[in-house]
Amino acid sequence: MLYLIIDILGAAAFAISGVLVAMEKKLDLFGVLIIAFVTATGGGTLRDVLIGNKPVFWMLNPIYLFTILGAVILAILFVNQLKFLRKTLFLFDTIGIGLFTMVGIEKGLEAELAPPICIILGTITASFGGVIRDILCNEIPVIFQKEIYATACILGGVSYFLLAMTPIDSAYSYIVAIMIVIVFRLLAVKFHIALPNIYKVKK
Amino acid sequence: MLYLIIDILGAAAFAISGVLVAMEKKLDLFGVLIIAFVTATGGGTLRDVLIGNKPVFWMLNPIYLFTILGAVILAILFVNQLKFLRKTLFLFDTIGIGLFTMVGIEKGLEAELAPPICIILGTITASFGGVIRDILCNEIPVIFQKEIYATACILGGVSYFLLAMTPIDSAYSYIVAIMIVIVFRLLAVKFHIALPNIYKVKK
Amino acid sequence: MLYLIIDILGAAAFAISGVLVAMEKKLDLFGVLIIAFVTATGGGTLRDVLIGNKPVFWMLNPIYLFTILGAVILAILFVNQLKFLRKTLFLFDTIGIGLFTMVGIEKGLEAELAPPICIILGTITASFGGVIRDILCNEIPVIFQKEIYATACILGGVSYFLLAMTPIDSAYSYIVAIMIVIVFRLLAVKFHIALPNIYKVKK
Fold first, then answer.
1. Helix (H, G, I), strand (E, B) or coil at B166
2. d(Cα C115, Cα C109) in Å, to the nearest integer?
3. Do A26 and B199 touch (CB under 8 A)?
4. Cβ partners under 8 Å of residue A97, min gap 6
5. Complex ipTM, two decimals?
6. Sorting pLDDT into bands at 50, 70 and 90, what band is A2?
7. Which of A91, B61, B165, C97 is 20 to 30 Å from B187 at the Cα level?
8. Is residue A125 within 8 Å of residue A104, measured between CB atoms?
9. pLDDT confidence bin for A140, thresholds 50/70/90
10. Which of C136, C109, C102 is nearest to C33 (CA)?
11. Which residue among C50, C144, C195 sits closest to B34, beta carbon to beta carbon?
């Protein structure tokens, strides 16, 4: 139950981030709706397609559709107020990332895939909604440029598999891994931690 | 049989619209061909992948491939004449949208999915070929900006499920829903009906 | 064994080409990694998704992941030296294309699809990694504009099916088809062979 609530809060937060990007691009109502839907479901959809789970997750329970619809309507109505909620949204978004990472890993394990593949699936689940959003809006995905986003997912995933080798109960490992994703991302954004620069500094 | 003919006319019309966009972008022969193919099959392909129908529909019957090849060759040869056929093409395109919407809904019902999910599948079938075409050509998909396109698909889909609750024979509902998509789109284009504006009018 | 070695060399060459494009776009470390991964695996992934092979190939053997990781690290470390290896890289890349084409055709035959569909699958396997790379980097795919790339795949595929109608052993046909793709591409690049121009020459 708690699981479902967080999952839906995550989907809603992702949908709202989609609305904000789409409205900046001045898309019409339908465009905003589809971008929100794709941002919220794209990562899980790609994961399910790659694994071969069928049909993809949001087809089996219309609650995802209605949650996203509700979030879009609220976001459009209160778009000006959203600016003051930026921190709350960022927190939802980050919680969503943490949870979606572990959902993806879980689905990989269910399909009996190797740990590195599961970590990739977790990262895809958490991050490809945003990638598809940016492609549809004709931008280079923000995640490829400066966000520490995916690194947090990978760290969380690695932690989970390391913890799984200890005698710690797997339910705890699960929660600890989610917390690692969330805390790492919050710290990275707060202290402007970035990946090591691979380009020669030009002077 | 009639069904197959309309389906193929729809694919041909979509392929031709792909040729026109690709030639505007000055793509080479292969680029034009692939954009045409993707425009004609992309919506149905995404639908089949999401549902998990395998393999995707155009692999099972090479007639789609040959129809598209034929349409591309004709379109390239007669590209100047196509300007005078703009209305005919638009009509084919619109018929294609109506039919593809119901094909998508039908496939959703076969997979025993809920009505709102079926309507999404219908809309995807009718509209994502054009979306993928625009992404490949590095444009923000036109459907997100001004077209009433998807709204027509959704309206038709909703009508179908409303009619299905009446004692009307489902074959009639099917045809009526297709007509609604077609008529609504024709009227919307003729009378410049657009979605309600969600942006503050700047003065 | 030889098969696996060439397959992995191909993946490595594709990954390196991804690194080069991504670094030109100044993506961060993760961006470079994902572009490399997508370039190396995108074609085969799309093929598996369209056929409905599940899960997609690189999930079943982590060697692909580690090969790509290794190639990316080497490519980033030696990016300046890579300029002098351009010919070697091009050769790897071309070998990769030849092999990937036949791998795709083989997978189509296993799924009992018609020859033209198999040829499409071969071409997708060999070329869509590059297409997805270009879409993610917000470019019109280079393959749609000037490369003779896909034409080589199609020619190789057609040759394979023509040879299969002769009494020649299918193992030979397989190798001959790969050679045709490779030789045709090398010649096309060397002699600047392009597809026939479909646009009126403006003066």
1. coil
2. 8
3. yes
4. A10, A126, A127, A149, A152, A153, A181, A182, A185
5. 0.86
6. low
7. B165
8. yes
9. confident
10. C136
11. C144
Q: Which of A34, A35, A49 sits opposite B49 (nearest CB)?
A: A49
Query: How far is residue B96's CA from residue C112's CA, in Å, rounded to a whole number?
Result: 29
How confident is the model over B92-137, as pLDDT tens digits? 778 888 989 998 999 999 999 999 999 999 999 998 888 888 888 8
Tokens of B62: 């090479």
B140–A135 CB contact, under 8 Å: no
> What's chain C's average pLDDT?
86
Interval C134-150 mean pLDDT: 75
Q: Does C76 touch chain B (CB under 8 A)?
A: no
User: CB B131 to CB A136 under 8 A?
Assistant: yes
Who among C29, C59, C136 is closest to A135 (CB)? C136
Cβ atoms of residues C33 and C59 within 8 Å: no
Residues 43-62 of chain C with CB under 8 A from chain B are 49-52
Q: Chain C window 23-42: which residues touch A at a Cβ cutoff of 8 Å?
A: 23, 25-32, 34-35
Structure tokens belonging to residue A185: 């991302």
Count Cβ atoms within 10 A of the Cβ of residue A178 and give its class: 0-12 exposed, 13-18 middle, 19 or more buried: buried
| Mean local confidence (pLDDT), C134-141 | 81
Cβ separation of B195 and A26 shorter than 8 Å? no
Interval A57-113: pLDDT, tens: 999 888 999 999 999 999 888 888 877 777 777 787 788 889 899 989 999 999 999
pLDDT at A203: 45
**CA geometry: angle at B138 spanning C97 and B19, to 5°?**
80
CA distance C139 to chain A (A): 9
Q: Supply the DSSP string of C34-95, one letter for each residue.
A: HHHHHHHHHHHHHHHHHHT-SS-GGGT-THHHHHHHHHHHHHHHTHHHHGGGHHHHHHHHHH
Q: What residue ranges do the domains of chain C occupy?
A: 2-190
Q: Which residues of chain B have pLDDT under 70?
A: 1-3, 6, 144-147, 200-203
Which token pair is A74? 């609220």
Q: How far apart, in Å, do the first and last CA atoms of chain C sit?
A: 55
Closest CB to A198 among C29, C62, C65: C29
Give dist(CA A122, CA B150) in Å, integer: 32
Interface test with A, best of B198, B200, B201 (most A CBs within 10 A): B198
What residue in A sits closest to B131 (Cα-Cα)? A136
Q: Check: CB of residue B14 under 8 Å from CB of residue B129.
A: yes
Closest CA to A23 of A69, A66, A75, A64: A75
Separation of alpha carbons C122 and C156, rounded Å: 9
| Closest chain A CA to residue B196 | A29
Give the distance from CA B51 to its chain's centroid. Answer: 18
What tokens appear for C132 in the block? Answer: 């997805």
Please answer yes or no on whether B135 and A137 come within 8 Å at the CB atom. Answer: no
**Chain A residues closer than 8 Å to B51 by CB:** 54-55, 59
pLDDT tens readout for residues B5-14 = 767 877 888 8
- Chains interfacing with A (3 or more CB pairs < 8 Å): B, C
